[in-house]
Design goal:
Layout (H helix, E strand, L loop, with lengths): L2 H8 L3 E2 L11 E5 L5 E5 L8 E3 L1 H13 L4
C-alpha cells in the first residue's frame, strides 16, 4: 500500500455541520500531511478521493466564500 493510500485509510473524515443526516448528497473532508485536504463522497467512501494542496484548498475555499466558482 502506498503512502497516500495509507494516509487516506487512516484519515479522520468529517462532514459539514450543515449536512443533514438523511443520507443526501454530502462530501467529507480530511486533513492530510503537508496541509493537503482530501475530499470524498460520503455515500461512496471507497471511491477515489480528490486531494488538494494547501494552496488549492485555500483558493477553493475563498471562491466558495465569495461565490466565485464560475
Amino acid at each position: 500500500m502506498d503512502d497516500v493510500t495509507q494516509e487516506l485509510t487512516n484519515a479522520q473524515w468529517r462532514k459539514s455541520s450543515l449536512s443533514g443526516d438523511d443520507g443526501s448528497n454530502c462530501v467529507e473532508v480530511a486533513n492530510l500531511t503537508g496541509g493537503r485536504r482530501a475530499v470524498r463522497d460520503s455515500k461512496d467512501p471507497n471511491d477515489p478521493a480528490l486531494i488538494f494542496t494547501s494552496e488549492e484548498w485555500t483558493a477553493f475555499m475563498n471562491a466558495v466564500k465569495t461565490g466565485d466558482l464560475g
